[in-house]
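Q: What does the predicted 3D structure of Ectoine/hydroxyectoine ABC transporter ATP-binding protein EhuA look like?
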Amino acid sequence: MSADINIQGVNKSFGFNKVLDSVDLSVPAGSVCVILGPSGSGKSTLLRCINHLERIDAGTIRVGDELIGYRQEGNRLFELQEYKIARQRTSIGMVFQHFNLFPHWTVLQNLIEAPIRVKRESKAVVMERAHRLLKRVGLAERANAWPRELSGGQQQRVAIARALAMEPDVMLFDEPTSALDPELVGEVLEVMRSLAKSGMTMVVVTHEIGFAREVADQIIFMDGGVIVEAGSAETVLDAPRHSRTKAFLSTVL
Ligand code: ADP
Ligand code: MG
């Protein structure tokens, strides 16, 4: 199942530094949104707010029917208890620049531990799913390998499979190929491309403009905590209206 994401009026500051300023974003179920923008523009913070790793100062974030991090009574919001936030996070997969696999667990263990411990699913069901997912990311033969025995590209594919093992409704990617050697970028993008085709709702922070052009239903350009420009690949990449978007694109194209 995939869910839509609706972000309305989100503000976030760290001290006096306003990092997200009235951010509105709507990602329809099954679509791919690519976020572009210079370093420090608030991209990672926005992703982290979507699963309440950061607490927002104003606004609302919904994933499907769930109001993330809060329950609403009348027009007041109350922060949820930690265990309820943890439950919401199970439906939001996240993949980071640095794969963050558990180094003392095999590939298979990395995939099965969370569904068994957090979602309390049966080991048989989870094992079957894990093997299916490893096959899907092209690593069926590496189930018993240790993370350190894998290349960066293989580790990132395991990280994607691990996120999918929780059967999330949306997937968030924060510069998933930025730490990889150039020759390993393609295999990770290929897995993401096929995930997009399967109908997963995805928000992807990346500088891979070719991937964005091919896969994104919507591209947003952020600068200084503001969504400066949003639209299809054709509009944002080929006919940007704002000078800041043009300046940024000239550095990555
Ligand atoms: P991006 O991912 O676009 O590079 P970030 O969301 O990481 O940008 O950061 C946006 C701004 O927020 C930067 O100025 C950064 O220094 C600041 N920031 C991010 N996380 C924190 C934090 N935990 N504490 C204080 N400032 C932070
Ligand atoms: Mg970042």
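A (community wiki): The structure tokens above were generated from the sequence. The chain has one domain: 5-250. The domain at 5-250 is CATH 3.40.50.300 (Rossmann fold).
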